[in-house]
Amino acid sequence: MKQSPPPFTAGPATWTSSKPPLLRFLKACHAEFTSETGGAVADYIPELGKADPAHFGISLATLDGHVYEVGDTQVPFTIQSMSKPFVFALALDTLGAARVESVIGVEPSGDPFNSIRLNAENHPFNPMVNAGAISCSGLIHEAKGDAAFEYIRQALGRFAGRELDVDDAVYASESATGDRNRAIGYLLRTNAVIKENVAAVLEVYFRQCAILVTARDIAVMAATLANRGINPVTGEQVMTPYAISRTLSVMTSSGMYDYAGEWIYRIGIPAKSGVGGGILAALPARLGLGSYSPKLDKHGNSVRGIKVCEALSSHYDLHMLNRSDDARTSIIADYDIGNSPSRRVRRAQEQNILAAHHQDVRVIELVGTLSFSNVDYVSRQLAARPRPQLVIFDLRRVTAMTRAGARLLAEEFRELAAHHVTVVLSGIRRSSPDWKAIAEWTEGLTNIRNYYLLDAAIEWAEDQLVYRYGGAIDFFEATELSEQSLLAGLTDEELTDLASHASIRTYKTGEKIISAGDPAASLFFLRSGAVHVTLPDGVRLATLTAGMPFGEMALLEPQRSADVLADMAATAYEVSLSDFERFRKQHPRAGERIMRNLAQLLADRLILANAKLELLTSG
């Protein structure tokens, strides 16, 4: 008998300290960029100059409603120009695209945000510059009159998922120093873009810029843009997909003003900044990012916020034109081996260990495209339950893996390694591009194993549990008929008589013992070694070890339905059906007992098959 290793004990790192790799990345960005002191706080609006330049918050909202927060994410600041895309979307949904597009262009201007210049048709270049944004406010005022601002405030609140307030001091300061915007307003009135009272329209605009938000708010607002207008936290459809797609288009070309071309070329995520220090970025079908840091560069964009966006895009290769997937639902089944063990039939001692510790092996079957957001979701689902000892990721249904998904998955493997969790990959070959993508970032990790077949991966994981909890697996130890499950309940006299009808057969590794289609002329009791049962097309049905019967369906069927091959050198007792019938006539009680045992064996197999089917069809 082999000596067993000591039972498994947890390492020094505690599972409760585990963090999703994306959160660790955001924390690293915050720590690195906090030391950035470049730029200056906007002071052309006096109240904005009072902002604390040390404030720095980063928030990221996923499309399943999870929000990451690092740093000063709850510090309120005024939304300023970040209100523009949302009011543009509101105007499109309120007045219709034809009305909005008849007075506001969609071309980048190449000018600063507060430029007093119109296009060749004497219309604003786009809704992201002040002229276009004031025009949007004018359109809302045209439709809603005195209720225009409240209409806008409520809409922005739906994007954020909560009621938003106004900073009256900033509003008053902005109104008192807003002569340049007044000049723009009267230029628009002269060209019939604004048909309402200019002063009233500008009061709406000044107030919408003074709405208070946090980094968390703008992350959720950005995620709502990325989610086709559905707030991922509240589930509300805030705006139509049409308005959202047009808004994201203009954000792509003009959201960062005279830095827009450089931004989309290098970072590739639709974004909008505000002179209050905020930047929001919306990556369609992926995420929303919000950052707050008051110091601005010469373009009026947050210095630290720019660096966060650059780092996120570069690290995970998130440029929107590099997209190759659009799936979000990635987990088809998530279970432990209690309901879905391997096809290997085990001895009682092994069964007892696995029954007591089945929760230590987690199996997650993935499907579709493994993208950045999918892998992040998987990592959080994994962390939501107690730490396992082994995690099997089955990738056989994965059709594609983005570079961002592969990198985040590799970072999850590193996180698991830190907590002494072994990762087993199945359904992927080492020669595949997906494996190579993962391997690029997993060099040096020793906690990763690979089995192409899921059942082989589960079987290996089961073996590890047996070893870790004091069991032993000895394929070469010979068993007697008294240890056979199909013969449970027979007396010594009955077993001795049955043994007299049996012949001991020896098989070499790989030797075929039974062939599908042959007449069923005998049944076998495995004495040592291991065999596997497969269908003619090669699908493995079971792995059997010493103490297990095979060919037992000969008692019910005249023809073999599966192949049986030796996994290793094996010995078995063979009893012909004619001898078995003579034994049953001599010992009718034993014959009845064997048929009951067979019925129980078949029932157990059916229960297991139903449990596996339930795993795939539930939810």
Describe this structure in words.
- By secondary structure, this protein is of the alpha+beta class.
- The chain folds into 3 domains: 21-316, 3-Layer(aba) Sandwich (Beta-lactamase), CATH 3.40.710.10; 327-470, STAS domain (Transcription Regulator spoIIAA, 2-Layer Sandwich); 481-617, Jelly Rolls (Sandwich).
- 40% of the residues lie in helices and 18% in strands.
- The protein has 20 helices and 23 strands.
- A 5-stranded antiparallel β-sheet has the order 3-2-8-7-6.
- Strand 2 (57-62) and strand 3 (67-71) form a beta hairpin.
- Helix 7 (179-190) packs across helix 8.
- The protein is elongated.
- The model is unreliable at 1-6 (pLDDT under 50).
How far apart are the termini? 45 Å
CATH architecture of the largest domain: 3-Layer(aba) Sandwich
Let me know the average pLDDT: 89
Q: Under the CATH scheme, which class of the largest domain? A: Alpha Beta
